[in-house]
Each structure stands twice: as structure tokens, then as C-alpha cells.
# Entry
Amino acid sequence: MEIRFSYQPELKEMAAATRYMLFNKPLVKVLLVFVFGMIGLSVFSAIYFKTNEYWESAFHGLILVFIWLIIYGYTMWSVKRNLTENPKNREIQHLCFDEKGIDQKGDSFHVYRQWSEIHKVKETKSWLFIYVQRNAALPIFKNKLQPEDIIAIRQLIQGLPIKKKLL
# Structure
């Protein structure tokens, strides 16, 4: 079975897919829980113990939020800059899935990956991520595919000996 399709990547979709991958990393989840836990704890302790240092506790929480917003903003800015600077993301991409691997072509590149090189495949409501490394994935945008193509890709991937999480 061979599945072929082409699409033009959009910066907004690429950034959203990257943000999704970033926030699904365990370390990022732990950091978010820690930051918001510290804020909640500082506000709770200030209210519960009726301390005069309420503003000091709230200030420490606001500093944590401010630091987190700076890190998040810088990360998203870097992601968008890297996506726009990569010429591959401005080209129409032609993908071909078959039992042996994935063939990805554009005007300036050609990449073939065998399924044995693929780390895992994960499907979400909006995307299909093909992890070529533990932390790097090729996002396939489901809104760019026909429903029968999505079904065919699922069937193809189901029969492969790789880690997968499909809907």
C-alpha cells in the first residue's frame, strides 16, 4: 500500500504543533506544576495565616509568573524564527508512505526514512506526529488530508513494528 499527498506547511500550524510537543514533555509539565504550585502555596499561606507579608508572598508568586512568561515568550519567538528561517518550511512538501518507510520531498530537499529508524508515531485530534528522534517529530496536519488518507495511514502504521499511539 502506498499513500501519497502534498501540502504547504503554514507557520501558524507548525508553531502550534511545536507548542503541543513542548508542553507534552514531562519536564515542562513538572516545571509548570511547580511554578503554579508555588504561587498557590504562597497565596494560600498568606491568606490562611493572615500574615502581614501577604504582599511579599504575592510578589514572589508574581516574579515566578513573570519569569515563566519570559521563558515561554522567548521559546515561542525562537521557535517561530527557526520555522521561518528553514527554507524547507516554505516549500510544498510531497510525502509518500509505504510499508518500507516515508519519503519526504521538496524543491530543496529529499529525505527517506525507513520505519526501523522511526522512534514512534503519535496521533492527536489535529496532528499525526512521526518521531524521527526522541524529541524531534515530523508533524502531519490532518486538516490537509482526506479522511480516507488518514484511515489508510492508520492501517499502514498499525501493521508496523513501531511504538504507536493512534486514535
User: Anything to note?
Assistant: The beta strands are 3-7, 93-97, 101-105, 110-114, 120-123, 127-133, 136-141, 163-165. The mean pLDDT is 84.
